[in-house]
Amino acid sequence: MACNPYHHSHKIRHSISSLCKVKYALPNSSITAFPFRNSPFHPIKFSNFRSLSASSTAAGTSTPTTFSWDDVVRVSQPEYNPHDSSGLRGFFDKIKACNRGSEMQSEFLPFVIEDQIVGYIHGSFAENLRNFQKVFILSKDNCDGGHVTLHRMLKSAEDRSRAVGEVIKCLAEKELIPGIRNELYPVTSSFGAPVFFSLERAAAPYFGIKAYGVHMNGYVEKDGQKFLWIGKRSPVKPTFPGMLDHLVAGGLPHGIACGENLMKECEEEAGIPISLSSRAIPVGAVSYSDIDGHRFKRDVLFCYDLKLPEGFVPNNQDGEVEGFKLIPVAHVANVIKRTHFFKSNCSIVIIDFLVRHGFVSPENFGYLDLLQSLKSGDCS
Fold first, then answer.
1. Taking the CB of the first residue and of the last residue of the chain, which one, N or C, has fewer CB atoms within 10 A?
2. Phi then psi dihedrals of residue 180, to 5 deg
């Protein structure tokens, strides 16, 4: 069942031959409008910091950011901005950065397999698929604007994965799909539904498929205060280099369960042994819907909490993290509100943590709007 009560069902109850009778609806991805109270806000200025706009942080960047841990600590302090409001506007700004482009949804064609919508492909990008007529079929119907499907001869998941994989290689060679990861994502109408085929991870947003991930906040309690372990991404990572991250996160590939994947990521990213990572608690999910040019990200992130011993210090094993720092939770909230230091979707996961652990309360104006906006995408 979808978490967003307004999202349209992806189940199409008609055969492909009767598509003209069906109005394909794009999923609802709008954020509730919120009338912010006026409050003084002083932007951060660093002489050596390349400012990141919400747009650039959501889209990803290959240019490393240049802030230091000292900058993070300094801006996190309550006294850094004594006029800072206790309002939620900074949180809403970060959520909005992951939910752009709703006005461009009409430019995308439904990607249909076995009468179910599994993704959305931009009309211009779909033109590239016309060269592969033995794999992709582009239909143009006057009533629904058309759709994309796979050739009827591709009946099994294995045949589809192989054929589509060859197309992705060709598109990658033409630099139409950059950053090939050699990691497969399942193509399905919703989580737990039958898998129609597997798709290269880098191609997922170009086909608008549902993508899932596991994200974990690792925290410590000492002297009556909660702290979060925060990671700083390697400056050579191809996506969001040098930005802040929570302790552990990873996409959910085909053929692995959430819990198993989380334990694997815990070991690789933070050196957390299974004896500890197995204690991680699943606490819910967040979702967002982001359109950036031909890319349509429809992501659901499963959230986990792990309470760690005071003496544990994370140690990256795969070279993707530059370092870690233990920061009071309230100070982490200040960094999210005041800066664009965090990878955009990580901000959403931490905001969810702040709500669940009482750092945001019903007394904060806009509390219910914030809860709703954490599932701005199709959460199914």
1. N
2. -55, 130
Alpha helices in 149-235 (DSSP H): 157-173, 204-207
pLDDT score of 120 more than 70:
yes
Q: Which amino acid is at 244?
A: L
Count CA atoms within 13 Å of residue 274 on its CB side: 4
Window from 83-92, 191-200, 330-339 with minimum mean pLDDT: 83-92
Instruction: Tell me the whole-structure pTM to 2 decimals.
Output: 0.85
Pair of tokens at residue 126? 């779909």
Alpha helices in 77-193 (DSSP H): 89-97, 123-126, 157-173
DSSP state of 232: E
The token pair at 246 is 């929570």
How confident is the model at residue 81, as a pLDDT? 79
Residues in the chain: 380
What is the number of other CB atoms lying within 10 angstroms of the CB of residue 66? 12
Taken in order 102, 107, 112, 115, the sign of the CA dihedral is: positive
